Amino acid sequence: MELRHLRYFVTLAEELHFGRAAERLHIAQPPLSQQIRQLEKELGFELFYRTKRNVQLTEAGQVFLSEVQQILKQLQQAIQVGQQTSRGEVGQLVIGFVSSAAYNVMPTILQTFRSCIPGVSLELHELTTDQQLDCLRQGRIDVGFLRPPVEDNTFSWEKIFQESLIIALPETHPLANQSDVCLRSLATEPFILFPRILAPGLYDLIISLCQQTGFSPTVTQEAIQMQTIVSLVAADMGVAIVPASLQNLQRTGVVYKNIQEASLVKDVSAAIAMIWRRNEKSPTVQGFLEIVRQVAKQL
Questions:
Q1: Do the Cβ atoms of 223 and 229 come closer than 8 Å?
Q2: Same domain, 206 and 138
Q3: I need a labelling partner for 202 at 20 to 30 A (CA). Which of 6, 33, 138, 218 fits?
Q4: Cα(148)–Cα(130) distance, rounded to whole angstroms?
Q5: How far apart are CA 87 and CA 286, in angstroms?
Q6: Is the pLDDT of residue 268 over 90?
Q7: Which residues have a Cβ under 8 Å from the Cβ of 43 and sit 6 or more positions away?
C-alpha cells in the first residue's frame, strides 16, 4: 500500500465522483478507478458502492476514511515538526552561564531568543567557567557564557561583551565618598577574590591590574560567585575588583568606584564569551549562536 493510494481514496471519498476526484488529483479517471480497485483488493473489503449514477462509501469505507484522515494529519504534523527541527525552531537548549552574565548580557539574549524562536525550550544552569568547560566536554550543556580566554581547541568561542572593571568598597570605607579611587591606595587592604581555577582569565586580569599599579593584592577571603564577593564586601570583610555590571545587583552596604589609574594601565576591562563545541552541527545551537551575535552587535 502506498501513501498516494490513501490520498486517492480520501479525495474520492470527499468528492464521491470519479471525474471530479480525478480532476483534483490531476490524473485521468480510468487510472484512478484502477488504483481504488487495487486498494480495495489489498485491504480485503470494499470502500465504495458504485452505480452508474453515484458513488457512496460503504460502512467499512466510512470507518476507514476516519482512520486515514487521522494518519494523514499525523503525517503532516510529523513533516512540519521535522522541517522546524531542521531549521532549529523546535527542541531544547541547555545553557550554562557565569553568575555575572546575569547582570549584563543574559537577560537581553534570552528575551530576544524566546521572542524569535518560541518553540525551543531553554534550560539554564549557573556555572563557573571551569564547570562550563567540563559540562561542554561531557555534553551536559550546549552553549556556555563564560570569562575568556579558553585554551582548548575542541571548543569554539567568541567575545560578545566587554565591560570595565571597578572597585567595590564597603559603604563605610574611608574612600567611599570619592568619585574615583586610586587602586594603589588599597595596597594594604584585604582583598576578596575567587579561586583562580574557576576563571583564570579574569583572575589573572585582576592580579595584573594591581601589579601594574605597584602592588600584589593580599587575598584574605575567597568566594565562588560574584554575588557572594559583593556580599562579603558589604559585610566589611574586604574590598574587591569586579566587572562593572555587578552594579546592577544593587546590594546594600556596597559602593562602586571607578579605578583612577584606568587610563594609565593596560587592559582594565573584562569580557564575556559564548562557547560551544567546535564540531557542533545542531541547527538549534547554530540558530541560537546567530541570535547571540545579533544581540551582541547592539550591546
A1: yes
A2: yes
A3: 138
A4: 11
A5: 9
A6: no
A7: 64
Phi/psi at 84 (5° precision): -65, -40
Tally of CA atoms within 13 A in the half-sphere of 200 that contains its CB: 7
| Secondary element (H or E) of residue 196 | none
Phi-psi region of 282 (alpha: psi -120 to 50; beta: other; left: phi over 0): beta
Which string of b and e fits 229-240 if b means at least 16 CB within 10 Å? bbbbbbeebbbb
Classify 126 as helix, strand or coil: strand
> Beta strand pairing status for 91-97 and 48-50?
unpaired
* Residue keyed to cell 583562580: 196
The verdict on 210 and 232 lying in the same domain is yes
pLDDT in tens, 143-198: 999 999 998 999 999 999 999 999 999 999 999 999 899 999 999 999 999 999 98
Q: Using the structure block, give the residue that is written with the C-alpha cell 552574565.
A: 101
Residues 64 and 169 in one domain: no
Please count the other Cβ atoms lying within 10 Å of the Cβ belonging to residue 145.
Answer: 26
Between CA 254 and CA 259, with CA 256 as vertex, the angle to 5 degrees is 145
Residue that wins the pLDDT comparison between 80 and 115: 115
Distance CA 145, CA 157 (A): 9
pTM value? Answer: 0.72
Per residue in 86-117, pLDDT (tens digit) is 777 778 999 999 988 999 999 999 999 999 99
Q: Which domain holds residue 22?
A: 3-86
Q: Which CATH number fits the domain that encloses residue 72?
A: 1.10.10.10
Domains of the chain: total? 2
User: Which H helix or E strand runs over 236?
Assistant: none
Specify whether the backbone of 223 is left (phi greater than 0), alpha (psi in -120 to 50) or beta.
beta
Task: Judge residue 123's burial from the number of C-beta atoms within 10 Å of its C-beta, 0-12 exposed, 13-18 middle, 19 or more buried.
Answer: exposed
User: Which pLDDT tens digit goes with each residue over 205-236?
Assistant: 999 999 999 999 999 999 988 999 999 999 99
The H or E element containing residue 105 is none
